[in-house]
Amino acid sequence: MAPSKEEKKFILEVIEMYHGFPELWKVKSKEYSDREKKEAAYDTLLLKYKEWYTEATKDDLKKKLNAMRTSFRRELKKLNDSQKSGAGADDVYEPSLWFFDALLFLRDQETPAPS
To answer: Is 3 in contact with 11 (CB distance < 8 Å)?
Structure first.
C-alpha cells in the first residue's frame, strides 16, 4: 500500500534527519566507524521515527533506511545506465521513486570505487 501524503511528508523529515547524521551513511567520515556515535544517532532518529510508527524498534528503523537506500541505488543505476547509453535527452530515465531527490546526498556513497 502506498504511503499517504502525511506519511510521505513524515518519511521525508526522517530522511532529512538521517542526512544530518553522516556517521550513519558517509563511509569516508571518521565518525562512520565510531559505534557509540552511530548508536546515539540511531537512538535520536528512532525517537523521530516513533512519532509515526509508535511500535518501531531500532531494527525496524535500520531495515527501513536500508530498504530506501536499496531502492535509491536501483533507481540511480537505471538513471546512470540510461545516461551512459547515449540516449537522447528525451530518453534519459526519469526516476519514479518518490523519495529519490531526498536521498541524492547518498549519490557519492553509492558509486563503486574504481578497481
So the answer is: yes
d(CA 108, CA 112): 9
Residue from 12, 39, 11 nearest 23 by CA? 39
Q: Mean pLDDT over residues 67-82, rounded?
A: 94
Q: What are the residue boundaries of the structural domains of the chain, listed by start? A: 5-103
Q: Cell numbers at residue 35, please?
A: 559505534
- DSSP-derived secondary structure for 9-60: HHHHHHHHHHHT-HHHH-TTSGGGG-HHHHHHHHHHHHHHHTTTSTT--HHH
Is the pTM value of this prediction over 0.70? yes
Give ∠ CA 46-52-27 in degrees, rounded to 5. 35
Residue 30, number of CB atoms within 10 A of its CB: 10
